[in-house]
Structure formats: C-alpha cells, structure tokens
Amino acid sequence: MAESFEPAAPFGVAVRRREDPRLLTGRGRYVGDVELPRLLHVAFVRSPHAHARVRAIDTRAAARASGVIAIVTGRDDAIARHRIRARSALPGYVETEQPLLADSLVRHAGEAVAAVVATDRYLAEDGAALVRVDYEPLPPSSTWPTPCDRAPRWSTRRWPATST
Prior knowledge:
- This protein is of the alpha+beta class and 164 residues long.
- It has four helices and eight strands, in the order H-E-E-H-E-H-E-E-E-E-H-E.
- The strands form three sheets. The protein has a three-stranded antiparallel β-sheet.
- The protein is extended, with a radius of gyration of 24 Å.
- The relative contact order is 0.23.
C-alpha cells in the first residue's frame, strides 16, 4: 500500500513571495543602485597572506590615478588610533580588539591593508589595483599550545576557570 506524501507547511510547498515580480522583472532596488550627491566609493586592498609582516605600502601610483580622492593605510594616525572591539554578553568571553586596517602585521588572508576612496566604484577598484604592498610571509599558527604552568602567557588577563 503506497502512502501519499503530504508536506508539512512551509516545507516542500511553493511559497509566493511579494518581492518576486519586482526582482524577476529587473525592477529591484539595491544599495549599490543608490546615487547621492557627493557620494564617494571605497575599495579595499586585501592581503593574499594568512600571516605576514607588512614591510611597506606604496600608494604613489594610486594617488595619481584618475578619480582617486584619498588613500589610507593602518599606519595613518586617523586610522591607527581606532580599533574594532569584539564584544559579547556571553559569560567568560574575553573582549579583543583589532585595527581597522592592518598596520604592521596581517592576521588573516583577506585582511584589509589599505582603503582607496574615489569618485566612482570602478575608479576606486582601479586605484586599489595600483597599491603595492611588500609582505614578509610568516609561518602560519595552526595549533593551540598545550596548557601547562610553564607555557608562555598570551595575555596578562586571567582566563575564567571552566568546570569539566
């Protein structure tokens, strides 16, 4: 005896969405479509390395590029004094900070090392392609040290005790 299959809503059932006609007919509106007076665009130069020292950043060619308004790096005072702080309400969470743009050390592949501001998106991307970064690749840190009394301290902060 074959049993008939009755899907439990909403799984296995076509759901008609309000936004479909607008999106399917090319009338969707996205943030990238918004053009405001004096709007500028930014493109980031990102590290290809997971772990590296930043020896030098050469922005001279990008600064001469058409439409480029400004270029900032993690070594600029206006950027270096700010940090992104990771916060959480979880008990025992240790708050950490990281720079807006990598200054002297790249901590992960894709970390931003420079930002190029230009009059349109494409000129910003073109300017970012002209930024030259001299990296000194460092060995990756892929293991966590075994905890013991003689292990070096990574922080002066005490980690909360956990029960097992």
